[in-house]
TrEMBL record:
<dbReference type="Pfam" id="PF02951">
    <property type="entry name" value="GSH-S_N"/>
</dbReference>
<dbReference type="GO" id="GO:0046872">
    <property type="term" value="F:metal ion binding"/>
</dbReference>
<dbReference type="Pfam" id="PF02955">
    <property type="entry name" value="GSH-S_ATP"/>
</dbReference>
<keyword id="KW-0067">ATP-binding</keyword>
<dbReference type="InterPro" id="IPR004218">
    <property type="entry name" value="GSHS_ATP-bd"/>
</dbReference>
<dbReference type="GO" id="GO:0004363">
    <property type="term" value="F:glutathione synthase activity"/>
</dbReference>
<feature type="domain" description="ATP-grasp">
    <location>
        <begin position="135"/>
        <end position="327"/>
    </location>
</feature>
<dbReference type="InterPro" id="IPR013815">
    <property type="entry name" value="ATP_grasp_subdomain_1"/>
</dbReference>
<protein>
    <submittedName>
        <fullName>Glutathione synthetase</fullName>
    </submittedName>
</protein>
<dbReference type="InterPro" id="IPR016185">
    <property type="entry name" value="PreATP-grasp_dom_sf"/>
</dbReference>
<keyword id="KW-0547">Nucleotide-binding</keyword>
<dbReference type="InterPro" id="IPR004215">
    <property type="entry name" value="GSHS_N"/>
</dbReference>
<dbReference type="GO" id="GO:0005737">
    <property type="term" value="C:cytoplasm"/>
</dbReference>
<dbReference type="InterPro" id="IPR011761">
    <property type="entry name" value="ATP-grasp"/>
</dbReference>
<dbReference type="GO" id="GO:0005524">
    <property type="term" value="F:ATP binding"/>
</dbReference>
Length: 348
């Protein structure tokens, strides 16, 4: 199998990224792996989507750190044609480009949409991912699994929303963002600080304001879904409890939160069940559901992470299960002779 990953930039990849773990394991299994930065695409005169990519080839490294060091320091970029690749996985984070390369995320999606027409399986489905990358996508899921939500840039609207919440407490964050960046808890006691927080969050766009869920003080759950269903290997779910280890309320791993494996309870599985049909409808192959109690706080459709932590904590080969599934999709595509479209292949 020839597998390409779209990332922000190879220079900014880190050894604890899920993409690096997937790339290392795929390479060790004998697959050809290519890493493509958002600025590396080429639409050539023949109408093909090409890229200047870092090729990994077939290598065996025991540690992610050694693997990343090798490809960052000892590999030259080579020109590839994506029509020659079986799978293109979109693993870039739009939030990393805000204010510096605002053009990059949209460009990556547009090139990927054309690549899908050439027969490469693109995951998550790039046509629907164009809509799903925005947090407004969250509002298309059943109301029963969503916290009360306001999206606005008007300070007075935010204040009215906070006043109307139980306990007069809410969470405010940028509509575009990830990794717990720019997330604040506000309440009636915030006073003048509330104005400053609202101004900071809305400086570069809209704010999303949600009711505060009391169980959030104990952290949240990151549940990985594959083909619209919870990823499970044997008896073990890819389900991670993330919690704050400081006075900072954020439980995101990138914000310094702690992690532990957890068995999902009935509420968590019900949330995943209700989210599944929409994920399948939109070709969202690999996602991360962030759950508090019986509510989803966010859906990560771009770069759902945590798989490396899940594997290290449990010893379960979740990457292997994902790669097995990708190989199955390639076989299905070949057997059906091109009659299955990208959206179908994404979630079959």
């Amino acid at each position: 199998m020839k597998l390409a990953f779209v990332i922000n930039d190879l220079a900014t990849e880190q050894s604890n990224y899920t993409t690096i773990r997937l790339s290392r394991i795929a390479s060790a299994r004998g697959h050809t792996v290519a890493l493509i930065g958002l600025g590396d695409f080429i639409y050539d005169p023949e109408g093909e989507i090409c890229a200047m990519a870092t090729l990994v080839g077939k290598t065996k490294f025991e540690k992610d750190e050694a693997f990343l060091e090798e490809i960052q320091t000892n590999r030259e970029r080579e020109r590839i044609c994506l029509a020659d690749y079986d799978i293109l996985m979109l693993r870039s984070d739009p939030a990393q480009e805000m204010g510096t390369r605002d053009w990059a995320p949209a460009a990556g999606l547009l090139f990927s949409q054309i690549a899908a027409k050439s027969g490469t399986i693109v995951l998550n489905d790039p046509k629907h991912l164009t809509d799903a990358v925005n947090k407004t996508y969250f509002q298309h899921f059943p109301e029963s699994v969503r916290p009360k939500t306001l999206i606005t840039r008007e300070p007075e609207e935010v204040k009215r929303f906070v006043d109307a919440q139980k306990g007069g407490k809410a969470v405010i964050k940028p509509l575009q963002g990830s990794g717990g960046q720019g997330v604040f808890i506000i309440d009636k006691k915030s006073g003048r600080n509330m104005n400053q927080i609202i101004e900071a969050v809305t400086r570069d766009g809209y704010a999303i304001v949600q009711e505060y869920l009391a169980k959030a003080k104990d952290g949240d759950i990151r549940m990985i879904t594959l083909n619209g269903r919870p990823l499970k290997v044997g008896d073990t779910y890819a389900c991670l409890h993330r919690f704050s280890q400081t006075e900072d309320h954020r439980s995101n791993i990138s914000a310094g939160g702690g992690v532990e494996m957890i068995e999902p309870d009935e509420d968590m599985l019900k949330v995943a069940e209700l989210a599944g049909p929409k994920l399948i409808e939109d070709g969202m192959y690999l996602c991360g559901l962030d759950i508090v109690g019986d509510k989803m706080m966010e859906i990560n459709v771009d770069t759902p992470g945590g798989i490396n932590f899940l594997e290290d904590l449990s010893g379960v080969d979740f990457c292997g299960a994902i790669l097995d599934d990708l190989e199955r999709k390639v076989r299905l595509k070949e057997q059906y002779g091109g009659s299955l479209n990208n959206l179908q292949l994404a979630v079959l």
